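In practice, a research group might receive sequence data for several interacting partners and want a quick structural hypothesis before committing to experiments. The following worked case mirrors that situation: the sequences arrive first, and a predicted assembly follows.
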Amino acid sequence: MIMTNIETIPGMKIVGQYGLVSGSTVRAKNAILDFGAGLKNVVGGELKSYTELLIQARQEAISRMQQQAQTLGANAIVNVRFATSAITAGAAEVYAYGTAVKAQTITGA
Amino acid sequence: MDLLLFFLLLVLTFCSGSIIEKNHFKKIIKREKALLRSPMVNFGVKKWSSKRKVIDTKLVYGEAVISADYFKCFVAGLKNLFGGRMTSFESVMDRARREAILRMRESAIGSHLILNVKVESIMINDPKNPQSVPQCAVMAYGTAVTYE
Amino acid sequence: MSKNNQDSLEARYIAMIENNVNVSKSSDLKEFFILVAGIIGFCIILFFSADILSGVFINNMSDKTQAKIENLMSLSVIPMDLNSMADKKYAEQLDFLNKQKLIIKKSNPKLQGKSRFDIFVYPSDELNAFVIPNGTIYFTRGMLNTIKNKQALTFVLAHEMGHYANRDHLKGYSRQIIAGVVLSILTSGQSDSLTSFVQNLGMFNSLSYSRNQERNADLFANSVVLKLYGNNESAIKFMQLIDNKQNIPQFIHYFSTHPAPSERIDLLKHNK
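A structural hypothesis for the assembly, expressed as tokens:
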């Protein structure tokens, strides 16, 4: 599935649109990793476990959004945007939304 | 005694919370089906309006604040120890967003298209207090366009 | 676009709305039970592994370490001089007990050079005796009034000293500390109700542990009495007296800190 965060797909023509599709998820890391991240806060640097948490949440939100687009019969999502919110301490909430469209490659001149 | 109260609270909030959630989802699905033919996109107007004359353009909004119940918070707190997907909060966020988007679409009834839809969400509970129940405030906005 | 195409698109929209992928299918209640079971299991494992470790440590530590730990703890325990308040009529019995105390202390390597084992009379009419963590032993007034037999008194004294020799007081303390630590990890020091709930659950286990300790103390006392007197008939008689006095249905003993007296009589009878 093609995804862009601009309004078009370069090199392709949008032939139909199916409206807004969205995917969201809330994920958390276990207490031991939370504790480790708390310790890491003292010295600073990258919190690897939380980076991983964000990656997982983003992947899941995108895959859910794609599932919705597939149900509608779209083959691309344009103008994808992400929103996050701090639902509780130590949890990541990611919301992805975009417009499901049908795109065709431009053939010939 | 204290413990009994705690369990009573869990059972009570579970029952009430799940009934409210079930009814809310039913309502949301019904309203979404009714609005099936009013399209909504989240990009600009450049490509879609050139062929027909626009007679009305207006900004439309929808807001909703949904709170999780005590039981959901308790389950999520336990889940936070083990890690993984917090399923109990997913439905809260989903309800809040769909409700906000639905209110926006309902205020745009009569328009042909809603353009450049954006969804913003904030938590309006006190994040420093771990006992406070998450209250999810969602705001959806877009431009409603009516053709001739 | 035909009408048929339009219909199928609408059907796809409805499918998207009804088959909501943004909410997981598993129910909250199921999740709740799995999580609670997981946490309780985790805590039980943590508690027992810590308990076994501390038991091994307490059994194997040197007497010096024990003395240090006791000094730290007995700061809060002020031995009351209750004898000044007690009647003069117990003086003879106390003299006897103090003599026996020295004999028992000398004969057992586990009791060398630790506590002074002060003996006091406790102003209560119940039939009881107990030892506090710094080794001070209390006999109740009721006990001294009822029991005149010297062998039985020796048995009671040896039983209390047996608790001390087995370091039961330290084991009890370590259990309490471990339970407290596990609970505070579990609740992050927040939920009081959950804490009290788990504490109530833990009661049963610590009771049976305590009964096991009583059994060991009985065995210790029995061996002392056998060594000093050559028989343990008066000790058995004493137990039978307790059995008659208590007169509680058998099943209640599961909730008691001591084994049933009949059980204790059997134990003594089998170890002649």
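Before designing any experiment, note the following. The first strand of chain B starts at residue 54 and ends at 67. Chain B touches chain A at residues 39-44, 46-47, 76-77, 79-87, 89-90, 93-94, 97, 101, 117-123, 127, 130, 134, 136 (CB under 8 Å).
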